[in-house]
Structures are given as structure tokens and as C-alpha cells.
Design goal:
The chain has about 300 residues and is mainly β. It is about 0% helix and about 55% strand. It has two domains: about 10-155, Immunoglobulin-like, CATH 2.60.40; about 175-215 and about 250-290, no CATH class. The strands form six sheets. Strands 2, 5, 6, 9, 10 and 11 form a six-stranded mixed β-sheet that branches. A four-stranded antiparallel β-sheet has the order 12-13-14-19, with no helix packed on it. The chain starts with 8 loop residues before the first strand and ends in an 8-residue tail after the last strand. InterPro entries: Arrestin-like_C (IPR014752), Arrestin-like_N (IPR011021), Ig_E-set (IPR014756). This is Arrestin-like N-terminal domain-containing protein.
Amino acid sequence: MASTEQKTKSLVLSIHTPSTGPFGLPLITGTAEAPAVIRGTVNFASSYDCKGDDITIHFTAQAQVKWSKKRGNTTYNYHGRHMFQERSFQVQLTHPKVGTVAAGNYTSSFEIPIHPDTPCSSKGTYGWMTYKIKAILVRSFPSLNMVHEQKIWVMTSLLPKPQRPLIDSPLTMSRFNGTFLNRVPYICVIPSEVLYLGQQVPVTFKCSGVSNTHLQIVSANIKLKQYTTLTVKTDRKIDSRDILNLRVDDGWPHATNGQAKVDHASQQPECWNQGAQSGDAHHHDCTKTHDRPFPIL
């Protein structure tokens, strides 16, 4: 009697990190004291003996730039590539004969240290810095190779690891002024001009200037913008792009009249909300401590 079991096989590459970076990529971080290391596993599973050799793991950290400039009637094209790191290694499988992989489940772990001088990941209009790992199971013709590719977002900092994960007291205050919808002036304050990789940063907003209107902060977007200097031969270009947008919709304290005091857990700073009497301009100081690491380049 013929078997009705379906033949299946899979090749999966997994990166071990609890964090997700820009563009939904796995996030790997590092400092000068603790350089970044990409850790992961590759798994191959097959329900039957299939064609194939050993698995090849290929890692690259490569930068690429491309732009053009027009001077008079002449267009100059600037294009460059640089491989900062490259590494390949084999994952051995069981072969009952040459070119055949025995049925089974194979898992292998790997570690790839990142040199501290290698640039952070970037993705701009004119340049890219890409970290990529590819797992390849080579199979003889006419079978197609099995390939699983994974890009990783690597973010490193030359600053040491912060002594405290949360800034719970002002150091060197930074203040930014703006106007919401061209009507409501606001001030945004962060407690320090120097923010460390992985640190949690309380953000304070103060809105004022609107009479007989109750103001309440209900949401905020925290954007991470990356600036990159690109160089090809004697030409240089500055590239920038928003690479991360964190939306914070909950946890904003507020008050309608009088004072309301909100105690944040985990030794986070307290927030006092001051509301004016009816008929006066309302002032609300609202503090929200973002409970996810705010990555700083």
C-alpha cells in the first residue's frame, strides 16, 4: 500500500534578539565595552531523503552609495561599494550518499561578532549600510537551491553603557518649541542632551495659550531620524531619513481643574498637572515615560 504522507522540507534562519528595529528588522545593539554580536540558529527539516549538500551560511556587512550630479551639460555619476565584513561557514548534514541529505531535523547555532568600527545600519535615499545573513542548501540540477535570507539592523554606539537605564533626574535639559495645527503653542523637554543606547527617557510636553479650552495630550509620535555622510572620491553628500516611528497612545496623565499627581512605577519621575480656573488659559504639564528603549545612534 502506497504511503499517503506528504513530503515536506524547510530551511529557516532565526536571529536571537528580543528587540525589533527599523523596518521591522531584528535589532542588534552594541557599545565600545560590549561590541555587537549577531546570534542565531539555522534549521533544516525534511520528511524524506532529498537532494542537497551541506548548508552554507554567508554573512556580509556592506555599504553602497549612488547618486548623480549635473554640471553644465555633463552628468557625473557617483557609485561606490565597500565590504566591511564578510564571512562564510558550513553546517554539516548527514549524507547517506553524495548529493543526498538524510531525512531528519538539523539545527545549528552560530555567532558573528561585529567589529566596533563597522558603521551602523542605514537606509537612505542615496546610500545604504546593510547587514545580511543568508542560509543556502545547494541542490543539484534540476532541483532549485533552498535559500533563506535575513537582514539585520545593527546599531552601535561609542558611548559606554548607561549607569542607569532610566533618566530619573534632569541633567542638561533640552527644550524644543513648536505649534500644533498653527494654534496651540507647546514645549517639549527631555532631561539630557546626551542619550545613551538603550536608555529610557521621560518626555515632557507643556501646552498653553488657548482660552476656555480643555487641552489633553492623548497621543504622540517619537521619531528617530538618521543622518549619514556619504563620500565617493572627492564628492560628499549628506543623507537623512526617518527610520523609526514609535506611537505612544496611553499613559498620558492629565487634569481638568486643580492639581492631579500621578506616580509612575519603577522609580519613574512624578508628574504634576496644573489646570487653571474656568475662564483662564489652561496649562497642562504632561509627562510620559516611554517604557521601551529609545535607541540613540
